[in-house]
Amino acid sequence: MRAYKSLSDTIKLSMIIVTILSISLVGSLWVIQKYRDVSAQLLKQKDDYIADKRTEIKTEVDRAVAYINHKETITEQQLRDSIKIRVNEANALANSIYNTYHGLKSDSEIQNMIKETLRTLIFNNNRGYFYIYDMSGNNVLLPFSPDLEGKNFWKHKDSKGEYVIQKTVKMIREKGEGFQRWHWYKPGETERMSEKIGFSKYFAPYDWWIGSGEYIEDFQAEVQKEALEWITKIRFGQDGYIFVYHFDGTTQAHFLKEIIGKNPLKDT
How is residue 120 annotated by DSSP? Predict the structure, then answer.
């Protein structure tokens, strides 16, 4: 009887142990599976977050590049429009002076009034000015080189061998106004001519033409500066920003303004 009871207890104990082990095993497997599920979910959330951030960054970079490309595309048209507006204003001002004083003052006095009025009109960050030539190629007004006023430029060639004045006079005779491209020395420079685009318009009272121009590289630099300033201000997400570097490593745009213009490749 005792042996039976002992066997019965042993079986019960064994069953209890097996049950506990089974529950523990099932519980462990459940915990492991849940851990794997949670880990997989966290990994997916991480991957989704990274993918979203990559998309967001790419979108912002593409937007910045598109803006720069757009600015580059419209640069020359903006330049042409601004020059034409200025020359039309100068021509209108010259006509106003002529109409006001014609018959009251001598031609030489009126001409001098027109010259000195236009001489003072400087624009585009002190790069823009008006010049006047007559239809024979004599310079009437050249604010940054007054020593050349009165000289004849009919046979003058630019660095590309173009007879700039002759071409402009021909255009004025045919159309009355228009754009020209040529190469000329920047104020203060004597070694290198830079490409310039200008607009000229006929001034009938004195058989003159009034014009103005802009060095393309200077205007491009100004547009580039505007684009980089815009990029520097871009923020997205919690701490996103756009940076621009030159191929030589010089920082062109960055939210840390103190490093703009510096080259980490050379400064470290």
Answer: T
Q: Are 193 and 184 in contact (CB under 8 A)?
A: yes
Q: In this predicted model, what pLDDT tens digit does every residue of 137-169 receive, in sequence order?
A: 999 999 988 999 999 999 998 888 899 999 999
Do 226 and 71 contact (CB within 8 A), yes or no?
yes
- Cβ(72)–Cβ(221) under 8 Å? no
> pTM of the full predicted structure?
0.67
Phi, psi of 237 (to 5 degrees): 65, -155
Per-residue pLDDT tens digits for 77-104:
888 899 999 999 999 999 999 999 999 9
85 Ramachandran zone, left/alpha/beta (phi>0; psi -120 to 50): alpha
* DSSP letter for each residue of 28-39: HHHHHHHHHHHH
Rounded to an integer, what distance in angstroms lies between the CA atom of residue 103 and that of residue 208? Answer: 19
Residue 114 near residue 106 (C-beta atoms within 8 A): no
**CA 75/CA 223 separation, integer angstroms:** 7
CB 121 within 8 A of CB 129: yes
The Cα 196–Cα 217 span in angstroms is 8
Please give the structure tokens belonging to residue 70.
């757009």
3-class DSSP state of 245: strand
Q: Amino acid identity, residue 234? A: I
- Cα angle value 80/83/88 (rounded, 5°): 120
User: 31-43, pLDDT tens digit by residue?
Assistant: 677 777 767 777 7
Cβ contact 139:131 at 8 Å: yes
